[in-house]
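Subject: 3-oxoacyl-[acyl-carrier-protein] reductase structure
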Amino acid sequence: MSRSVLVTGGNRGIGLAIARAFADAGDRVAITYRSGEPPEGFLAVRCDITDQEQVEQAFKTIEEEQGAVQVLIANAGVTRDQLLLRMSEEDFTSVLETNLTGTFRVVKRATRPMLRARSGRVVLISSVVGLLGSAGQANYAASKAGLVGFARSIARELGSRNITCNVLAPGFVDTDMTRALSDEQREKIVGQVPLGRYAQPDEIAATARFLASEDAAYVTGAVIPVDGGLGMGH
């Protein structure tokens, strides 16, 4: 059955791969984006998730066009990498404002109709960095780690209404961002991964689809790593 799906930050990279995977399966897919031209084939809504009014308007548009969101993939995020002693307070708070507080805004708005329907799937896109830590990414790691506690609290609150909430924690993924690294940087990263390669965006998307499927109806509050073994033990 075709569902109403929202992927935040679905205009590129992992988010776009996830959006395409749901669309290919026959779902009605909306994406949010902040800037640039969105890809074709989706209901694209410009939305900065740090702005509550934009979030509310985006959901109204989506609900009018394709119905209440039944599957939410909270993927939108930013980085502002810097060593701790050089990191400004704005560097720190702006990343948390998007990655953690922005996700709170989106999840809170999405789950209102899910509660009425007594059904829903929420998947938060975290990162292996939120589990392992990473020098120069204290802000990003903190925001991504925070998603775990947030998801598990939501899973406990909403489980009785047949709403699941899980976390997907990708490792290093072959996207435009990682392709911009030097060959030496890429080799160093791959050397840390037991499987010896980057993930493909489609591999992340496949896991997101599983967590939103009936096959995962009894999975909630879980953190699923898709990282080639990089974060083993966490």
